[in-house]
Amino acid sequence: MNSALPSPDDMFLLGGELPVRRLGYGTAQLTGPGYWGPRGDRADAVAVLRAAVDAGVTLIDTADNYGPELAEELVAEALHPYREEVVIATKGGVVRTGDSAWHVAGRPEEVRAMCEASLRRLRTDRIDLYQLHRLDPRVPMDEQLGALEGLRQEGKIRYIGLDTLTAEQLEQALSLTGIVSVQNRFHLLDRASDAVLKMCEAHGLAFLPWFPLANGALTGDTAAALDAVADGHGATRGQIALAWLLHRSPVLCPTPGTGSAVHLAENLGARDIRLTTEDMSRLEALAPA
After folding, report:
1. Cα(254)–Cα(192) distance, rounded to whole angstroms?
2. Prior bond to 81 cis, omega within 30?
3. 25 is an active site residue
4. Which of 59, 106, 31 is nearest to 259 (CA)?
5. Residue 273 — φ and ψ, nearest 5°?
């Protein structure tokens, strides 16, 4: 039987108390190739950020190494002073020295210095969600999370999140401090983090999937299957990929990025798509077992 699924909840309570709309906006695409340097005109980037908030986006996801530093500066330029409903999430723990050079830096003094710098660039006294971009394998987890907990107790960050970790690492992290969110790769064609997603559901954590649009991979045989679903809704492939995430789990909070106001509007149109049981079956079958 092919029946419309219930409308997915548009809201998620971050930390069980702070409401955000589940379809957010990511800032990586406001920077150049490799997330290095500027992309196009600065005024255009500012305009897209403002358009996102004007369209009802409340979760803005950025990172200190996008640019580096540039994305956070653009967020502040476009949105400060921040509307009460806008939640700013940023990340630290990775140092960039080139467009393909990423260096994990998780020593407590490094994490603290990165957070302090983000506070300055974002022009705020407290970051709503501060996420460790990568766990540093050279530093005990309790020391890395201890630095974040110290910043939280000082009122410099409200909530702690983690990026790219296993279910076992998440279980360990939860035993050490309060975690409210996870960022792992998860999209229509990659469900490798399904165990992490299940843990997020069990603990009420937000799961912010990176590459929610599969980083340009929605082509070939996949596109044919996607087109069949998209045609039935008068939608694009990308809109269906985002709608699938919103229907897949109530904790998934995708933050697709773009530097185009037209593409932004297209992405946000996914909020209005109501998939059916048959749609979901077709889409679930796209990922390899």
Report:
1. 16
2. yes
3. no
4. 31
5. -90, 130
